[in-house]
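Private note to self, pasted from the team thread so I don't lose it. Backbone tokens:
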């Protein structure tokens, strides 16, 4: 059964610049199904600000044939060894909405123990260039909702030029996440996410779009000096 991994790491500036133009993870990597290399952004930050594009902070979302292939990459590959200096979580697939190219959505799905279990959500989209201003208008309020939500443990956005955008969030419980999605959060303006979804259905922002939900199975390393983000996990 394939697994997914999500990595956060701060890398040298020159390597980060190279990564903008060429994914440092080779498509021919043994056991790799697909990877997305992206530059991290702060959720809800102003469009023109130093915190919007954190050039040295990169996010990598990948799918592997199995966990052993991921471990071999981290242990033996030059860039894989760089990734071990950051933080990552390994993920089992629960369900998806929409469709995105590159990844192979598993037919076999896992289940959470209950709605009070932690969950990870990843969204990824290929933008229509002329729809980006409208997307930002509707998207930034949602970013702020997720960023400030009491149920979100860790959240961020990321981008790969010219048109891939993504979000990543870890939630204390699946129930808190689904309440946010459907506008039932005990937060100011709780309908921000559901309103944006309605606008997306009215007129698409993207060529491709998918929301993926995962059960976290382990986490490793530190991000900005912190670790052990996910409750009730084997941490390393």
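Design output:
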């Amino acid at each position: 059964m394939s697994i997914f991994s999500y990595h956060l790491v701060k890398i040298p500036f020159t390597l980060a610049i190279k990564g903008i133009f060429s994914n440092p993870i080779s498509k021919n990597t043994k056991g790799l199904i697909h990877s997305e290399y992206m530059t991290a952004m702060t959720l809800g930050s102003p469009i023109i600000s130093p915190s919007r594009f954190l050039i040295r902070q990169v996010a990598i979302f990948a799918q592997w044939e199995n966990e052993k292939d991921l471990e071999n990459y981290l242990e033996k590959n030059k860039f894989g060894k760089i990734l071990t200096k950051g933080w990552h979580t390994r993920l089992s697939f629960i369900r998806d909405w929409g469709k995105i190219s590159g990844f192979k959505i598993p037919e076999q799905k896992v289940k959470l123990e209950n709605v009070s279990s932690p969950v990870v959500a990843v969204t990824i989209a290929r933008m229509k260039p002329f729809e980006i201003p409208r997307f930002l208008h509707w998207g930034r309020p949602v970013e702020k909702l997720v960023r400030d939500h009491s149920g979100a443990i860790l959240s961020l956005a990321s981008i790969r030029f010219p048109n891939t955008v993504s979000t990543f969030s870890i939630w204390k419980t699946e129930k808190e996440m689904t309440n946010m999605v459907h506008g039932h959060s005990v937060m100011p303006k709780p309908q921000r996410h559901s309103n944006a979804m309605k606008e997306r259905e009215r007129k698409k922002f993207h060529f491709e779009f998918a929301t993926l939900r995962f059960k976290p199975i382990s986490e490793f390393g530190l991000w900005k000096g912190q670790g052990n983000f996910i409750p009730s996990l084997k941490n390393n």
